Amino acid sequence: MLSLTLQRSVSLSKTTHIPLTDVLNTLHDPVLLVNLGPLVVDHTVDPSETELHHVTDKISILGLFHTRTKFTVKFTLVEDGVISSVNAGFGTVVRSQWRARTITGGGTEILEESSVKVSNRTQDIV
Fold first, then answer.
1. Is 47 exposed, middle or buried (0-12, 13-18, 19+ CB in 10 A)?
2. What is the rounded CA–CA span in Å between residue 10 and residue 25?
3. What average pLDDT score do residues 74-85 get?
4. Left (φ > 0), alpha (ψ -120 to 50) or beta: where does 99 sit?
5. CA–CA distances in Å: residue 22 to residues 5, 12, 125
6. Once rounded to an integer, what is the mean pLDDT over residues 31-53?
7. Is this model's pTM higher than 0.90 or not?
8. Is the dihedral of CA 16, 110, 85, 67 positive or negative?
9. In angstroms, rounded to a whole number, what is the distance separating the alpha carbons of residues 12 and 85?
10. CATH homologous superfamily, domain 5-39+71-119
């Protein structure tokens, strides 16, 4: 049977000398996380659901023209990081977990696990 969606996952780990409290303060600040995105041109927090953020990115299509795309991100803060769920429309959903922990010998390990589910119709542009 032919699937109408494609799903991919990736896990990454980075060790840094930034104190765990500083890393967690960043991960627990959804407004900062959204505004770190280099394509973000607008961002608002949903007044009725503060975990939900409405984001507008300015993107280039094949380097020929620019357009704006809107999507939502729901942030769930957890003790050791954050879980985000992006609904970008056209069947595109991105789920990410960012976790941080102190490692033996000093330093902080930051773990990212992300998965993207995309429609076969739009996979070439996502």
1. exposed
2. 24
3. 97
4. beta
5. 38, 20, 35
6. 95
7. no
8. positive
9. 17
10. START domain (3.30.530.20)
